[in-house]
Amino acid sequence: MACPKEGEKAKKARASEILKALKALYPGARTELKHENPFQLLVATVLSAQATDKSVNEATPALFARFPDAKALAAATPEEVEPYIRKIGLYRTKARNLVALARRLLEDHGGEVPRDKEALMRLPGVGWKTATVVLGAAFGVPGIAVDTHVARLARRLCLSEARTPEKIAKDLEALFPEDHWVFVHHALVLHGRYVCTARRPRCGACGLAPYCPSRQV
Prior knowledge:
The protein has 217 residues and is mainly α. 58% of the residues lie in helices and 0% in strands. The model has no long low-confidence stretch (mean pLDDT 96).
């Protein structure tokens, strides 16, 4: 449906109510990717592209036991990594990217995950969304990463009509306080994953329904 005409002041007020509702619904919102440090989060986030968090979480315990840090992973070949991630989509490409990523971390960053978005995006397999997720979840750097869930909710809630993740992020970041950007990302992901699903949104059980122009009644 087309979003109703709404002034920026009214939209920002509605976004404020949405934020209050998200805080009540998901007070401890965080990534569902299991990790113990920034390196593990980076690897898991790369693996999660076009894959479910569940499939990634099933694979990473054995993967991290075998390759616990950048040094160990950099010493591997893609063929050695593949068996650990075979059930994840695009596993051959991801295995190559992970090995190349680990080697770049060693060469350019002493094996540590950089806290700079541009530096992260120069790593193999790391794009804008992955870099934003890692910076926010690992280091608390403000940013709203936009995946399919966040993009879907941004449009359904009429908070953005943009089509690119970067533009959607700018629209959302203009509506929510900067110190809540990381929370907003995680909360919207959870809401999109479990309530406002792609095919059958559960509008009757949705805590955001009072603020949603797209709600089905």
